[in-house]
From TrEMBL:
Protein name: Baseplate J/gp47 family protein
Superkingdom of origin organism: Bacteria
Domain called Baseplate J-like central: residue spans: 208-278
Cross-referenced InterPro entries: Barrel_Baseplate_J-like (IPR006949), Baseplate_J_M (IPR058531), Phage_Baseplate_Assmbl_Protein (IPR052399)
Domain Baseplate protein J-like barrel: 104-182
Length: 383
């Protein structure tokens, strides 16, 4: 929706309003329009107020009165009219392994409130987690899974395998780690405006009397933590079956998230439908890129770091890279898109993509995921 609200309401600038005021006053006995004159100063005060009112109307009030252009709290108010609420940020909850060192014997108490954390991340942060239930590591056991909760909300706490490796609260003879599937409830960021806007319009598809694919998509997106949804309603497992394929901020959804989506859909679906909620079929790819820099421009290490960040942002949402469209279910990987984003890095004037050599095309239920990312820099003399 690209509407010029300023022209629509005939808004005038301060200068235009002052010109009109002078023309009107010229019809009267007021002739003193000199700078510093009483009548000019009074007119300027009034016209400035009117110009500010025009600006408030066309920059704030009108754009935020329509779902396609509203932002922030204004969009929240519009979405609430159809019972759609913005997903709030949530904390990661998962099972962290507390491992006994061989030299230590006896039962070991792991108290609620004990803290574990990651090493320093690329953003200069240490992500901390708190034990939320007291457990005892029995003498006969070498390790135990302990439920921990992230210190703050956010998807960045859904870290990978082995990332949680530091025990902040000293427990004699214990070290910590986390498995690949350690997350029980994924942490999420607060839903952005575009996602909420999309769900607002999807909600209208639920008004149909049948079970349209868009209705299933709306139901699945109603569950916090669901990032993308694809629906196969062409009887994939026989007559009356529907497959709902979902992703989370980490790509592959947890069993808990899939169950939450299925439970919600079960309250909405027609009785004749057999619904299965599942993860996409992952297609991992390696990305190898050479970025060209002039001999005397740009920093090599910073360029490589930015190249990795840009490439990762195509697969995982990044707060600093909101302009990059992430991979979605059923979307192929196109080198032209990667080239576009990498060419936006300061001083980079050429991009050579060695892998994948060609665009990667996928089926409707596939999701391309990154495997290894290898970014190098080549210095080129432009003269």
């Amino acid at each position: 929706m690209n509407v010029d609200f300023k022209s629509l309401i005939g808004a005038k600038s301060f200068e235009e309003l002052m010109t009109q005021a002078r023309e009107k006053m010229s019809e009267s006995s007021i002739t003193n329009w000199n700078t510093g004159g009483v009548f000019k100063n009074l007119a300027a005060l009034c016209m400035q107020g009117l110009a500010d009112l025009y600006k408030l109307i066309y920059e704030t009030i009108l754009p935020n009165s329509y779902a396609k252009t509203a932002k922030g709290k204004w969009l929240d108010f519009i979405a609430e009219d159809v019972d759609v609420q913005r997903h709030l940020a949530t904390k990661t909850i998962g099972n962290v392994k507390f491992i006994r060192n061989e030299a230590v014997t006896g039962a070991i108490k792991i108290e609620s409130g004990s803290i574990v954390k990651t090493p320093m991340t690329a953003k200069g942060e240490e992500l901390r987690y708190f034990v939320i239930e007291e457990v005892i590591l029995e003498e006969s056991c070498n390790e135990i899974a302990v439920k921990c909760q992230a210190e703050f909300e956010g998807a960045e706490y859904n870290v990978g395998q082995g990332t949680i490796s530091i025990l902040v609260t000293h427990i004699n003879g214990i070290s910590v780690s986390n498995d690949a599937d350690w997350v029980v409830n994924e942490g999420t960021n607060e839903e952005d405006d575009e996602s909420l806007r999309e769900r607002y319009f999807l909600r209208w598809n639920e008004l149909s009397t049948g079970s349209t694919a868009l209705a299933y998509k709306s139901w699945a997106r109603s569950v916090t933590g669901v990032l993308d949804v694809a629906v196969n309603d062409m009887h994939p497992r026989g007559q009356g079956t529907v497959d709902v394929i979902i992703t989370s901020s980490d790509g592959v959804p947890t069993e808990a998230l899939k169950k939450a989506v299925l439970d919600y859909i079960e309250t909405k679906r027609p009785q004749c439908s057999d619904v299965l909620v599942k993860e996409p079929n992952l297609i991992p790819i390696n990305i190898t890129v050479e970025l060209w820099l002039p001999i005397d421009e740009g920093d090599t290490e910073e360029t490589i770091a930015e190249g990795v960040k840009v490439t990762q942002a195509m697969f995982v949402p990044d707060e600093d890279k909101k302009d990059i469209s992430i991979q979605k279910i059923g979307r192929g990987f196109y080198n032209a898109r990667l080239n576009k984003y990498l060419m936006g890095i300061d001083s980079v004037f050429n991009v050579v993509i060695a892998s994948p050599v060609d665009d990667v095309l996928v089926e409707s239920g596939d999701l391309i995921s990154r495997n290894e990312i290898n970014i190098t820099v080549k210095r080129v003399n432009l003269t």
